[in-house]
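Quick bug: Putative aliphatic sulfonates transport permease protein SsuC output formatted oddly.
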Amino acid sequence: MTRKFQSIIDSASKYIAIALLLAVWQVLSYTGTVPEHMLPSPGDVISAFISELPLLVENSRITLLEAFYGLGVGVALGFAVAVLMDRYRAFYKAFYPVLVITQTVPTVAIAPLLVLWMGYGMAPKVALVVIVTFFPITVGLLDGLKSADSDAIELLKAMNATDWQMFRHIKLPSSIPYFFAGLRIAVSYSVVGAVISEWLGGFEGLGVYMIRVKKSYSFDKMFAVILLVSCISLLLMKLVSVLKKACMPWAKEENKL
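Here's what came back:
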């Protein structure tokens, strides 16, 4: 009975935390602790979300396209670089510090330069998403490749296995859990990165919509966009977990959110 009660508490704890957060938010807005035009109540945000849903859906289509294009390129590039760094020690020594340094540069500082170089079309948005998704994919895959069982590798070497055979049968399977861990981070970064890049210029997208409603002081609509971005990110992370479960049915415990 105690164990069942504890299980119920564990399952409900995240919903209780969200409910408490919403209650504090509602109290702050209702009592005027924070002016309503700066912090609209949760009810106002939901109302704005429903009334603006057609526009939000239309703009989210553009943002998602930018996020998916950038994520696809980021995954492909990260995979290639991780394999090269694992295979060639000189390549690892030369480029790993550069890879880390690129992550110390704030994304907001890079975005204006990309707009200047590439214009106001989709290209700078996709480029920024590639930059923010490339690192977690590369580092995750590299850690996974390096975690391969050294005894198994030595055994295959003794059996005259080729580099491709060692990669296919030992290194690649060992890197899959690390890849999905990096992918979960990358999918959420991809949407946020696309929105940030749209703040600096463009014609469509959730970031452009946020700038427009900010100029009219419609903060409830801005919060509606934040709500939508959070929902999209959570949905994509859940899809990654489903994909991981399909690819790794033996790792049931790790697949839990």
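Actually, after a second look the formatting is fine. The first helix runs from residue 2 to 30. Closing.
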